[in-house]
């Protein structure tokens, strides 16, 4: 019985690259998940571990980031540029497949914010604060406990990002601290928020829309010194604007965007190309509540991500 190597391919899966165009104060961004894979004669690597024909997956990843520095364009164009380059790089590589998933981002709009400098160009559309299209979920948890009824409304996976207007500095340093202080970073999070209503007949749709808008507007407008500060400001805004809300609990992972070092390829990177890292992530959670409303812990029992 002859045993042989059948079809095979290899590449780097899910390179998360975010490219920001800062050429005007109205930033734009492209957010991609790029997977490459090569076909060709890689028999030697499989049979004997001879890697002389292996264009490493690390190199493929670097190529994705380096190509993003030169502009992304459409996913199709970016895929074509990459695939042509990879397929043409060595004689023994006969083909390349590049899969590009492109995540859409909408500008956050803020009513009545025309006087904020970040809105000056397009009415209420923010220059550098975005909401990822499509991912979010509306939630409700209702508890009936004897005579008591509790309604917790919420949303999950409301993904937002600011390309500027975020700092993080002034933290203590010990022997394990390597994080650099920054006065300008990309700030991104997936907001999970749950808020408990006071009793009463309420227009839940209108309240949901209002709370969601308050969360978005406040994320966009707050010059953030920490994600904790943004979280607090978002909770305060909801309680200030909606007397119907007794308390709000927020869970906000810090979706880190690391500036990709392109210097090894002779490229600068003036805050253009980022690696959107999915883990580990900071997880910032907090409750904002009113002093004069009795707690209702039973309403929260079994609700994940609230503290
Ligand atoms: O907004 C932040 N809060 C933190 O607590 C923290 N920790 C960290 O490493 N980066 C950040 N960013």
From TrEMBL:
Give me the reactions it catalyses: urate + O2 + H2O = 5-hydroxyisourate + H2O2
Pfam families tied to this protein: Uricase
* Membrane spanning stretches: none
EC main group: oxidoreductase
Query: Which amino acid positions bind urate, per UniProt?
Result: 57-58, 168, 185, 228, 254
Residues of the signal peptide: none
What EC number(s) does its UniProt record assign?
A: 1.7.3.3
Q: Decide whether keyword Ligase is in the record.
A: no
Q: Where does 5-hydroxyisourate bind?
A: 57, 168, 185, 254
One GO molecular function term? urate oxidase activity
Q: Name one GO biological process term.
A: urate catabolic process
| Active-site feature positions | 12 (charge relay system), 57 (charge relay system), 256 (charge relay system)
Keywords tagged on the record: Oxidoreductase, Purine metabolism
SUPFAM superfamilies attached here? Tetrahydrobiopterin biosynthesis enzymes-like
Quote the Gene3D superfamilies the UniProt record gives: Urate Oxidase
UniProt xrefs under PROSITE patterns: URICASE
UniProt keyword annotation of Oxidoreductase present: yes
Q: In which pathway does it act?
A: Purine metabolism; urate degradation; (S)-allantoin from urate: step 1/3
Please describe what this protein does: Catalyzes the oxidation of uric acid to 5-hydroxyisourate, which is further processed to form (S)-allantoin.
What family classification does the UniProt entry report for this protein?
Belongs to the uricase family.
Q: What is this protein called?
A: Uricase
Which species is listed as the source?
Blastococcus tunisiensis
